[in-house]
């Protein structure tokens, strides 16, 4: 039967098209799809294979991440496509549908199935389904090192024989087995006909029904049965896969199905989908029994030991809070020296060089102002925060990769119930401290639409990295001695308001029970540095792109709005100034009813860090002049030496900060130089109380445009963004009002 | 037969049991085991005949061992899964 199946399984057209390719296999790039369970180490393996050649995009029409890489291995061009991690190929989640559609319609040359060797049975459940597709397959028996360490003995040759495919043990974190895996893949791709996977028997009843159905289909719908893997197609029709039937335009009544399935239904009941799932599971379970030898006595694993402490009912939450505190602490300790260095670099040498360059070219004065006050101030003020953002992304990636993130969800589950959510919603919220945008995308891991919407609504209240520049500026000016505490209090304010809003939403828009929590807690792993760096880069580069595109464009736009109508004498009379002045009265009761603040807030809608950039352009256009008057300009060489020396100092500073215990040395240190023009201008325009009200307003007012777009993409409509916009505007105004008026009443207004 | 059948959620820490039944009913509210949760349970290996071990039972979700994985499960769901002990 298996020979027959092969002949039918390869559609005539493709077979014809592939023939010439067989001879010229080195010319044509081969396409390899990588499939596997979540937590099977798939992305680590892909990073190990492709590393920096990895290209991250989205699957068409959805926001599920799509990774792809093109490279050469022993002279053969390879295109590697990473499919979303799934537990099965049933069409129930977006990820499953993407994986399945890709395999069925794009027909890759080969599948690499990444399997977690420490958890064979569950992983093989997916493998069994992949084999149904009849695509040549190589199995990467990943995390093999841990399986060995646990005392597992896996009969690899036996597995190859049972499945009829190549099985290569790999340990992606240690870069082991990668070359062997690729070599095996090339071998299979060179002669696909000799590497058809075995068709596993699902038991006589199912096999018989499938054969009958397949023959009927081939007779009645020859063109359809040629387009699809034959065995897969008949299985899907047996299961009554409605989506496929619709897509093929098959009339369910006319399907030659009932006769073939009659015996099956009589013998096993009506629910053939469940029957198939059981048969596949039985196969996975049987295969595992065949090839896996476990040690008789299970050692108490490290994971269990750690979990006993970390998930302890009394210690769990304190440990979690401690971990969060440490993460923020480390982020600022590591990043601040580099931020200072970048700041000096942009305000000093960069501005001087730009001015000198433009001077040499004989460019008119206004271009100098545009370049220095517009672009360099605007983008520069924001770029200074790149180290902070990257450091935070690094620590968040570490928490994800080590497995602790899932524990955080576990520990927080109970607390999250208070706001009508469960522990899993906690992960998007945590990611939001880096940037709200990945937070919005992470709501995808929540199964239930109600959870998704509620989580997305609350998550803009988590203070993201982009709001930090505003806090740092104001805290350094007004609260230098307690800068760390003041900034921390804003994070806490955001969380407290998220809890409050959660309770309100739970009683109004989102009535009904919080859904159930089911989640796998992966074993603890020490993520490799290489992996951490790659993922940190992937997360952080969006911020860089934003700085290079949006913020650059807005900076230029703001400069024009501040300098038009042409020749405007005072910034106040510019377009932006007039708009700011018009809406300023709204902010009067909040303590910052001036046009400068109002204008900055308007531009902050694009991205909140722009608030600082705009203030820089409004308050400190003389920054360059101030720098220059300090003395004779240093030479280019002196600049370079200073830059290099500054970087070394920053490295040293970061090291010292980590070693030294606490006392947020880094932020407090900034206030000595109270003299930057922007800082002194801000000191004149705000009081400590109105500054705090302003920071709270920036924390809470509408999510930035990028978040709006992400919400639109994720929910398919503007509805939830509209709700977020409305409630956050009201919330921001009210909270700032309470802070300012309340503070004034208490006599803090001075 | 019902004598030694009990909800999974009532197992004591350290106890092992075999899954006997996962109760689902059409139109179930979130409190019941809806089909979606049932599907997730199956994918994570919580299916009939499977041995599970209760690892810990605190005030939050339960922690189970199924094969080599550790699964966190809401108590409400665990009460809809019946086991033989």
Number of strands of chain B: 6
- Strand sequence of the main sheet of chain A, in spatial order? 2-3-4-1-5-6-8
Give the amount of beta strand of chain A, in percent.
Answer: 5-15%
Mean pLDDT score of chain A, rounded?
79
Chain pair with largest interface? A-B, 41 and 31 residues
As residue ranges, the low-confidence spans of chain B are 25-33
Provide the CATH top-level class of chain B: Mainly Beta
* Main beta-sheet strand count, sense and barrel state of chain A: 7 strands, mixed
- Count of alpha/pi helices of chain B: 2
On the 0-100 scale, what is the average pLDDT of chain B? 75
Number of helices of chain A: 35
Low-confidence stretches of chain A: 1-25, 624-631, 661-674
Alpha-carbon Rg of chain A, integer: 30 Å
Helix percentage of chain B = 10-25%
Helix- and strand-based class of chain A?
alpha/beta
Compile the SSE list and pairings.
The complex is a heterodimer of chains A (about 750) and B (about 80).
Chain A: H1 2-9, H2 12-23, E1 30-36, H3 42-50, E2 54-58, E3 65-73, E4 76-82, H4 94-106, E5 110-116, H5 120-132, E6 137-142, H6 144-149, E7 153-154, H7 156-163, E8 166-169, H8 178-190, H9 204-220, H10 222-227, H11 230-239, H12 242-248, H13 258-268, H14 272-291, E9 292-293, H15 302-310, H16 316-361, H17 365-383, H18 386-402, H19 404-417, H20 426-432, H21 436-442, H22 449-458, H23 468-478, H24 483-507, E10 518-521, H25 529-563, H26 575-587, H27 595-603, H28 610-619, H29 623-628, H30 636-659, H31 665-669, H32 677-685, H33 688-700, H34 705-715, H35 719-745
Parallel strand pairs in A: 1-4, 1-5, 5-6, 6-8
Antiparallel strand pairs in A: 2-3, 3-4, 7-9
Helix pairs in contact in A: 5-14, 9-11, 9-13, 16-17, 16-18, 16-30, 17-25, 17-28, 18-25, 20-21, 21-34, 22-35, 23-24, 23-32, 23-33, 25-28, 26-27, 27-28, 33-35
Chain B: E1 5-7, E2 16-22, H1 35-43, E3 51-57, E4 62-66, E5 69-73, H2 75-78, E6 81-84
Antiparallel strand pairs in B: 1-6, 2-3, 2-6, 3-4, 4-5
């Amino acid at each position: 039967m298996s020979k027959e199946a092969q002949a039918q399984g390869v559609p005539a057209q493709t077979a014809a098209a592939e023939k010439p390719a067989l001879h010229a296999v080195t010319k044509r790039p081969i396409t390899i799809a990588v499939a596997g369970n979540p937590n099977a180490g798939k992305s680590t393996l892909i990073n190990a294979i492709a590393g920096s050649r990895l290209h991250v995009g989205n699957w068409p029409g959805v926001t599920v991440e799509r990774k792809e890489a093109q490279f050469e291995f022993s002279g053969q061009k390879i295109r590697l496509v990473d499919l979303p991690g799934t537990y099965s190929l049933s069409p129930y989640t977006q990820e499953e549908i993407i994986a399945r559609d890709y395999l069925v319609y794009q027909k890759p040359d080969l599948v690499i199935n990444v399997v977690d060797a420490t958890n064979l049975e569950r992983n093989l459940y997916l493998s069994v389904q992949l084999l149904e597709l009849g695509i040549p397959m190589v199995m990467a028996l990943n995390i093999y090192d841990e399986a060995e360490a646990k005392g597992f003995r896996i009969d690899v040759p036996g597995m190859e024989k049972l499945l009829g495919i190549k099985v290569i043990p790999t340990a992606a974190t240690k870069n082991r087995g990668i070359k062997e895996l690729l070599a095996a893949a090339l071998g299979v791709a060179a002669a696909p006909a000799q590497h058809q996977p075995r068709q596993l028997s699902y038991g006589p009843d199912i096999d018989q029904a499938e054969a009958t159905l397949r023959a009927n289909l081939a007779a009645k719908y020859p063109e359809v049965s040629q387009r699809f893997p034959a065995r897969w197609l008949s299985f899907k029709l047996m299961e009554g896969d409605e989506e496929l039937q619709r897509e093929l335009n098959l009339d369910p009544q006319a399907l030659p199905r009932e006769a073939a399935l009659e015996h099956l239904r009589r013998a096993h009941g009506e629910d053939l989908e469940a029957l198939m799932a059981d048969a596949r599971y039985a196969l996975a379970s049987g295969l595992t029994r065949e090839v896996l030898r476990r040690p008789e006595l299970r050692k108490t694993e490290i994971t269990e030991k750690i979990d006993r402490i970390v998930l302890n009912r009394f210690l769990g939450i304190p440990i979690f809070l401690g971990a969060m505190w440490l993460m923020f602490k480390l982020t600022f300790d590591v990043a601040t020296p580099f931020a200072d260095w970048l700041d000096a670099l942009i305000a000093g040498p960069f501005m001087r060089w730009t001015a000198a360059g433009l001077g040499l070219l004989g460019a008119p004065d206004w271009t100098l102002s545009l370049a220095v006050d517009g672009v360099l101030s605007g983008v520069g003020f924001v770029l200074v925060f790149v180290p902070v953002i990257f450091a935070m992304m690094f620590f968040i990636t570490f928490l994800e990769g080590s497995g602790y993130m899932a524990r955080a969800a576990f520990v927080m589950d109970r607390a999250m119930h208070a706001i009508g959510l469960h522990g899993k919603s906690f992960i998007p919220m945590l990611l939001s401290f880096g940037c709200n945008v990945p937070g919005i995308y992470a709501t995808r891991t929540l199964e239930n639409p109600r959870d998704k919407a509620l989580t997305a609504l609350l998550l803009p209240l988590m203070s993201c990295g982009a709001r930090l520049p505003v806090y740092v500026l104001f805290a350094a000016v007004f609260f230098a001695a307690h800068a760390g505490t003041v900034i921390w209090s804003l994070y806490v304010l955001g969380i407290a308001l998220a809890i409050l809003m959660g309770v309100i939403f739970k009683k109004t828009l989102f009535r009904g029970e919080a859904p159930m929590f089911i989640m796998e807690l992966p074993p603890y792993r020490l993520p490799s540095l290489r992996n951490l760096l790659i993922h940190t880069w992937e997360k952080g580069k969006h911020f860089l792109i934003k700085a290079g595109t949006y913020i650059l464009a807005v900076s230029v736009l703001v400069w024009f709005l501040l300098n038009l109508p042409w020749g405007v004498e005072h910034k106040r009379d510019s377009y932006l100034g007039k708009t700011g002045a018009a809406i300023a009265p709204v902010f009067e009761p909040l303590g910052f009813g001036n046009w400068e603040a109002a204008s900055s807030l308007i531009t902050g809608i694009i991205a909140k860090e722009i608030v600082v950039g705009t203030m820089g352009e409004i308050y400190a256009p003389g920054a360059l002049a101030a720098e220059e008057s300090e003395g004779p300009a240093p030479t280019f060489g002196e600049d370079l030496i200073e830059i290099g020396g500054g970087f070394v100092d920053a490295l040293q500073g970061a090291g010292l900060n980590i070693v030294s215990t606490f006392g947020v040395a880094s932020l407090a240190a900034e206030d000595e130089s109270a003299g930057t023009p922007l800082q002194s201008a801000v000191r004149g325009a705000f009081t400590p109380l109105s500054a705090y009200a302003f920071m709270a307003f920036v924390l809470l007012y509408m999510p930035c445009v990028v978040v709006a777009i992400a919400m639109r993409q994720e929910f398919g409509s503007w509805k939830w963004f509209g709700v977020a916009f409305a409630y956050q505007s009201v919330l921001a105004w009210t909270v700032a009002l309470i802070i300012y008026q309340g503070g004034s009443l208490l006599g803090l207004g001075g | 037969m019902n004598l030694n059948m009990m909800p999974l959620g009532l197992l004591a820490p350290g106890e092992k049991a075999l899954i006997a039944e996962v109760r689902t009913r059409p139109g179930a509210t979130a409190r019941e085991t809806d089909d979606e949760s049932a599907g997730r349970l199956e994918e994570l290996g919580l299916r009939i005949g499977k041995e599970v071990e209760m690892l810990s039972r605190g005030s939050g979700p339960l922690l189970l061992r199924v094969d080599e994985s550790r699964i966190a499960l809401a108590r409400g769901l665990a009460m809809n899964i019946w086991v033989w002990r």
